[in-house]
Specification:
The structure holds two protein chains of two kinds. Chain A is about 30% helix and about 35% strand. Chain A has helices spanning about 1-15, 15-20, 25-30, 65-70, 150-170, and strands at about 20-25, 40-55, 60-65, 85-90, 105, 110-120, 125-140, 140-145. In chain A, the strands form two sheets. Chain A has a five-stranded mixed barrel with strand order 2-3-4-7-6. Chain A has a two-stranded antiparallel ribbon with strand order 5-8. By secondary structure, chain B is mainly α. Chain B has a domain at about 5-260. Chain B is built from 20 helices and two strands. Classes of the chains: A alpha+beta, B mainly alpha. Chains A and B meet through strand 2, strand 3, strand 4, strand 7 and helix 5 of A and helix 2 and helix 13 of B.
């Protein structure tokens, strides 16, 4: 439900310039990448991993639009398969003030990106990625915490104590 | 008739397995400390459970000390096969507790893939996985590649421990004693580790623009996966995540270092040439051949718009396949579309594998070279006049004679690999996977490569998960230890 609401907001937020672009998913781009080569496309997803600030004033990062982007695993989400993501390349100023990317302990910002899909770009050694022209944040990133399970702690304590006993026994023999 | 093992046999096996479980417990402290430092307290408690289990089993086994500590061949083989089963079983505990796996079978599959340096994965949402869990998956690569047995041989003495070394499918004896050889392997790993992690950290920090801590994390994990020809990566998009040719170059160098046998490392350290070795010539020829096939296949369908793009992508993918690493710079969905010659080149590269006594899997170059030499010798025998004497010699760190016994051994293991590839492919087809994909995935698992065309997913049938896990285990140990374990279990049940 929350994922659907986020997608709805994302569609509303897509401005006039982006409306000219075709709205696609990362799965569509990965399954038939050549059919979108050179096309203007819009993708909604979570920024993930690292922001790689290069010397040429650009940033490389990853955009995931899998179920975890809309419903994070450690925030009520369920296991629904592997990640689905694409590489994106953008001018560094588009990342000014943006929240840190998603990782274990945080959900990355959910963004709408519009840009040109580059399939096997001859100028970049055959890489495939989205050359981003515009980036809008739909949902800010936020920190996550995973509570320690008391059952796991008790099991760990019992096992470590039992192991210490077994090692003492071995030493005496 | 098989003899039922005595209590002392069981104690001897348990004692030696236990010593290696204690080493695994110590290895588990590394991700535990990382988890605490990174503030990942839930995964830290998961690691405590695993360390406790390893240490408890190890302590009990060591306490059950045998009357004599002399390992014979069968003991050594059984110990190795058991270690490579028990470590992934216990090592899967933090993976399962992490919440990134749908079932224990999926977590075990991943741990088996890790320790056998395969790289196939059933992990879900890797991009939000705890960094300490990611580190543990890569340490499993290191334990399998460099690791447990070699560490045990370096630390412990005991009559017959050399059988453990050979049980892992290693046959390089660099120094007269296995202990010295094991220490040399550690030395090579440490030197390569320092150089590799430093180089990757520098490229990640200076070229990719990552923070220093993240640069080091990516470097350490990628090093373990590359040098141990494993293939796990810290992000879901594998090496395609980095979008950097310099980073790929460093990884390629590490994959080449990983695919080389430690005998070759030794020779290179001593500035001796290895170019005359049959194994070196074979691997260079098969790499060139499979790369050429892949290049022609991709060029014929105009997959890339530039020679630079074609060369870079084909070279990296074929090197990854031939070395048994399993890294990729392209998505599985795209790899699945590589048909014809490109598919052939990749599949053959995976099936042949790297050098003997390296961490890569597959048939291995020396066996391929010897098989070709044997066939040529047979053809000559037919063509030359009756009674002609044919010299069956080859060069491998000095002149050697290709004896009938050697030919039989080489043929037997090579045929077992082919059988294992076909077994997995057949089960895949029975599970309604298209033939080409089933064959690719089966070879990838059995040759410990880890490349996938999308068959290996959490949704695949359990029978395929079990099949691929078995293929990884049997392929990594080169069959003999696995057969020894089956024989041992049979003699326990039916021996007199």
């Amino acid at each position: 439900m929350r994922a659907a609401a986020l997608l709805f907001i994302a569609v509303l937020l897509v401005g006039p310039p982006a409306m000219a672009a075709e709205s696609v998913s990362a799965t569509m781009l990965l399954e038939t990448p050549q059919s979108f080569d050179g096309h203007e496309v819009t993708v909604v997803g979570e920024l993930i991993g690292d922001y790689g600030y290069r010397d040429d004033g650009t940033v490389w990062t990853q955009l995931n639009d899998d179920p975890y982007a809309f419903s994070p695993l450690r925030d009520g989400g369920r296991l629904l398969g592997g990640n689905v993501g694409i590489g994106i390349h953008a001018a560094a100023d588009l990342f000014d003030g943006i929240d840190p990317p998603g990782r274990y302990n945080r959900v990355g910002p959910l963004v709408i990106v519009t840009g040109t899909w580059r399939y096997h770009d001859p100028d970049r050694g055959g890489e495939t990625y989205l050359e981003v022209a515009s980036l809008q944040t739909v949902r800010a990133g936020y920190p996550l915490s995973e509570p320690v399970s008391p059952t796991t702690l008790v099991a760990a304590a019992v096992l470590v104590l039992a192991a210490a006993g077994a090692l003492l026994l071995a030493r005496r023999r | 008739m098989l003899l039922r093992p005595s209590t002392n046999d069981l104690r001897l096996i348990a004692y030696n397995v236990a010593r290696m479980l204690l080493i695994s417990a110590v290895a588990g402290v590394v991700p535990l400390l990382w988890a605490v430092a990174a503030g990942e307290l839930a995964p830290a408690s998961d690691f405590l459970v695993m360390i406790g289990l390893f240490a408890l089993l190890g302590g009990l086994g060591v306490a059950w000390k045998p009357a004599t500590d002399r390992l014979d061949w069968s003991h050594g083989m059984v110990v190795v096969a058991l270690i490579w089963l028990i470590v992934p079983i216990v090592g899967s505990v933090p993976l399962l507790l992490s919440g990134n796996f749908a079932s224990w079978l999926d977590a075990f599959f991943d741990a088996m893939s890790g320790i056998t340096t395969t790289g196939l994965t059933l992990a879900q949402d890797i991009d939000h996985m705890a960094s300490s869990i990611i580190l543990w998956r890569h340490i499993l690569h290191f334990l399998g590649g460099q690791g447990i047995i070699i560490a045990a041989l370096s630390l412990f003495s005991g009559a017959g421990t050399a059988t453990l070394y050979f049980g892992e499918g290693r046959d390089d004896r660099i120094y007269p004693s296995v202990r010295s050889t094991s220490r040399f392997i550690w030395l090579v790993s440490i030197v390569n580790g320092i150089a590799g992690i430093l180089a990757l950290t520098l490229v990640a920090y200076l070229d990719l623009g990552f923070s220093f801590v993240r640069s080091f994390f990516h470097a350490a994990t990628i090093f373990m996966a590359a040098f141990d020809t494993g293939g796990f990566a810290p992000q879901s998009t594998s090496i395609g995540y980095y979008h950097s040719a310099p980073f790929e170059v460093v990884i390629a160098v590490l994959m080449i270092a990983g695919v080389m046998s430690f005998g070759v490392h030794f020779a290179l350290w001593r500035r001796r040439s290895v170019m005359g070795n049959l194994e070196t010539k074979t691997i260079l020829a098969t790499f060139a051949g499979t790369l050429l096939l892949t290049l022609i296949g991709l060029a014929s369908v105009e997959a890339y718009g530039s020679a630079a793009g074609l060369g870079r992508q084909a070279f990296f993918q074929v090197l990854s396949a031939h070395s048994g690493t399993g890294f990729s710079t392209i998505p599985s969905a795209e790899l699945a579309t590589w048909g014809g010659l490109a598919f052939g080149g990749m599949t053959i590269a995976m099936a042949l594998g790297g050098m003997a006594s390296s961490t890569s899997g597959g048939v291995k170059s020396l066996r391929v070279g010897l098989t070709v030499k044997s066939i040529i010798s047979q053809v000559k025998q037919v063509l030359l006049p009756e009674g002609a004497v044919i010299s069956d010699r080859f060069h491998q760190n000095g002149p050697r004679h290709l004896t009938d016994e050697l030919k039989q051994g080489v043929m037997a293991i090579s045929l077992l690999y082919v059988a294992l590839y076909l077994l997995g492919g057949g089960i895949g087809v029975a599970a309604h996977v298209p033939l080409q994909d089933a064959l690719f995935e089966s070879i990838s698992a059995a040759a410990n490569v880890g490349l996938s065309v999308g068959v290996t997913t959490p949704a695949m049938p359990s029978v395929l998960k079990i099949t691929y896990a078995f293929q990884m285990w049997a392929g990594r140990l080169e069959f003999i230890s696995v057969f020894a374990l089956f024989g041992f279990l049979w003699s326990l049940a039916r021996g007199k």
